[in-house]
Every structure is written in C-alpha cells, then in structure tokens.
Amino acid sequence: MTLLCNFLSALRIASITPKRFLLQTGAKNYGGHLGPTLNPPVESDPRVDIEPNFYYPQEDALFEYCSETGAKWNVIRPAWIIGAVVNAQMNAIYGVGVYAAVQAHLGKTLEFPGSITDWTQEHAHSTAMLTSYLSEWAVLEDACENQAFNASDTAWTTWARFWPELARFWPELARFWPELARWFGAKDVGKPELDESKFKTLEMPYNPPPLGYDVHV
User: Fold this and answer.
1) How far is residue 155's CA from residue 6's CA, in Å, rounded to a whole number?
2) Dist CA 69 CA 210 (whole Å)
C-alpha cells in the first residue's frame, strides 16, 4: 500500500498524469481465502468486509488519484496464477511440484493430502500470459476505462484430473494428459482419504462467511 501511495504522490509531484493506470490485485478481492464465496465471482460483487483486505485501500487510493487528476483506471483480478515465474512464492504449482519430485525420488507414493471433497472440487486458474493479454487489451480499449476485470481461463479442473497418472489406467489416453505423477515419474499414486473419522473438522472464524450464510468447512 505504501509503495502504491508513494508512486501516486510522485506522479503528482512530477506533474505526470497517465492516460490509463492499471492495478493488478487478485481473486482474494472476493474473500475466497476467508471461506466459501459466491461462485463464480463477478466484478460487480460487493466487497467482503468481515476482515481488512489490503486490495481495497489500494483501489481506493487509485480511485482518489484518478478522480483528482482525470486519469482513467483498470483493475485486473487474476485467479490462481500458474506458470514458471522466478520468485513467485504464491505460485501453487511450486509446492506441489517439489512434493511430487521428492516423493518420486524416494520411490514413495504420491499421496493426496486432502478429502474427497477437495479431490473433486472444481478450480479455475489464470496464467501470467493470460493476465498480461487481458491487461494490454483493457488499457488500450477506450470502452474499458474505469472498469475491473477478472482474469480466469474458466477451464474448470479438479485434483482428480491433475493428480493421478492416467497411463496406469487408460494407456491409450496417456499422450493427452501430462498429469502430475507422470511429469515427475511417481510410480504409485494415492487417492483421497475416504474415512471421515480421520479428519478434524474446523470452523472458519467468520459467521457468516463471505457467501453470506452459514457454511461450515
């Protein structure tokens, strides 16, 4: 936040007013990190105010700057970003890849660390390339001024599709599906735990959650 505010102040001091100012935030704008939300998210969804969100003051600072200077704005909100980006600690694939590589090297089973609900839950993602193409299009189109856009491939996938090595079960499909196990050479693949008595149920501390009504996870 301080970095953005300092930059906006510098633009004022230097009497530089950009035609369009693009701010990239993310899907946490919709509160998915706090519990169940309305899915899929829509750019016009209201802010989730059950706890402070560092994206909101960034947007407010940008809106204030644009209102004062006449600059136009765009906000781009990517979903989970996948891809090879140096020092991208929030890239979900890194952790999964390290785990798969270690298990394959040790000759151990690539266990799935979750429940059947996690196994079958659908996820959409973004990529650096998709986000950059959307950003370029938004800032160059006059009709897109002063609007926010979600960056998502809308290609819903599940861990059930990504995790196992399909070649073990459907050899004729192996060349089409570069799943995690095959990428790293894991020989044995674990399925999700089905015995619910082995799980500890935790309640999110927010009631109601971002979805707006009582959901326990």
Assistant:
1) 38
2) 34
Number of Cβ atoms within 10 Å of the Cβ of 138? 21
Q: Tokens 């006059």 belong to which residue?
A: 142
> What's the rounded Cα separation, in Å, for the pair 89 and 82?
11
**CB of 158 closer than 8 Å to CB of 117:** no
The answer, yes or no, to whether residue 68 has pLDDT greater than 80, is yes
Cα–Cα dist 78/55, whole Å: 13
Within 10 A of 61 (CB to CB), how many other CB atoms are there? 17
- For the chain, the structural domain boundaries read 1-78+129-154, 82-123+158-201
Tell me what pLDDT residue 201 has: 73
For the domain made up of 1-78+129-154, give the CATH fold: Rossmann fold (3.40.50)
Contact 96, 44 (CB under 8 A): no
Region 44-73: mean pLDDT is 95
> Can you give the length of the chain in residues?
217
Asked, as a colleague might, if the bond just before 41 is cis with ω within 30 of 0, I would say no
CA distance 10 to 16: 8
Q: 122 is written with which tokens?
A: 């659908």
pLDDT tens digit sequence for 77-122? 998 776 555 666 666 677 788 888 998 899 888 888 878 888 888 8
Helices (H) and strands (E) in the chain, counts: 7, 5
